[in-house]
Design a protein that fits this description.
mainly alpha, 13 helices, 65% helix
Length: 299
């Protein structure tokens, strides 16, 4: 592969990845109002209440006082989830043994990629090529190992099989291949060579790219373009899951934006039926009408 092919490929990958991620985030942000479950503990509650899963609603005349919110509580919770996958470890320890190295491998590869582009920009001292090579070798190895473990668990564990679609296995195979190629590039060329190649490409020099590096760039690029359109967008979708679902305890006040969103949601139509729900009604009608059985019992 020559530089005339590499530069357009890198530009295409970045455009599709960024545009796809923005589109998905916009869709999440514009989604209808969720069902407010009041799930506790809420991370932004001050420590005494957060520790026992309490709420400001427990306080007498809470509406007369300013609400206290702990950004530190949210930051600590998110750090534990991102760095240690605390929720997975607590709820499914077997899955954690594959998920933890898998995610840390991806973190290392992201940091390595940032280091490569900083190296291209001329930051030499903190980005020794040996350190970058170690990051790619370790990160790729962890992604490969984690993908294989998760693939085996999802294929053999009777509790996970029902929740594992063919596309989930495809994603893991894709990432296992990418991890293996990252290891191969780190061993075959070293990341100093990758920095040199990309520097030449971005400066318009004619550069020959070896087959192994070309394969790694092709697979990595395809993965980045593919990812925004899959469930793997949870790397930013979790923000909406936590802040707009689990932790959304904003009180509803008449005339507020929240009240307007809830009113709009109540006017959505119902397109399924059960003993207590009939299709053809709005949710407001369902919520204010007794089920047929109950009405018949009172008649």
């Amino acid at each position: 592969m020559t530089s005339t092919l590499v530069l357009p490929w890198v530009a295409l990958v970045l455009v599709v990845f960024v545009a796809g991620s923005i589109w998905r985030a916009w869709r999440y942000a514009r989604a209808p109002m969720h069902l407010r479950w009041d799930l506790y503990p809420v991370a932004h509650e001050p420590a005494p209440r957060r520790d026992h899963g309490g709420s400001y609603l427990e306080e007498r005349e809470w509406w007369t006082r300013p609400r206290e919110r702990s950004l530190l509580g949210e930051a600590v919770f998110m750090a534990e989830e991102i760095l240690f996958l605390k929720g997975v470890r607590a709820n499914n320890r077997r899955l954690w043994w594959g998920s933890f190295p898998f995610h840390w491998g991806l973190y290392l590869l992201v940091l390595t990629t940032v280091g490569i582009f900083l190296g291209v920009a001329g930051w030499r001292l903190p980005l020794d090529s040996g350190l970058l090579s170690l990051g790619a070798l370790t990160g790729g190895g962890l992604v490969l190992a984690g993908s294989v473990i998760l693939l085996v668990l999802r294929s053999t564990d009777p509790k996970l099989r029902p929740y594992t679609a063919p596309v989930d296995r495809l994603n893991l195979l894709f990432l296992a291949l990418f991890g293996a190629l990252c290891v191969g590039v780190a061993v075959r060329y070293g990341l100093g060579h990758v920095v040199t190649v990309l520097s030449g490409v971005l400066r318009g020099h004619e550069v020959r790219v070896g087959r192994l590096l070309a394969a790694q760039m092709a697979v990595g690029g395809l993965f980045l373009m593919y990812m925004p359109f899959t469930r793997m967008v949870h790397f930013f979708a979790k923000y909406f899951t936590y802040h707009d679902v689990r932790w959304d305890d904003t009180p509803m006040e008449p005339g507020s934006p929240l009240a307007d969103r809830l009113a709009a949601a109540l006017n959505y139509g119902v397109d399924w039926s059960a003993g207590h729900v009939r299709t053809g009604k709005t949710w407001a009608e369902v919520a204010t009408t007794l089920p047929d059985e109950e009405k018949g019992g009172k008649a």
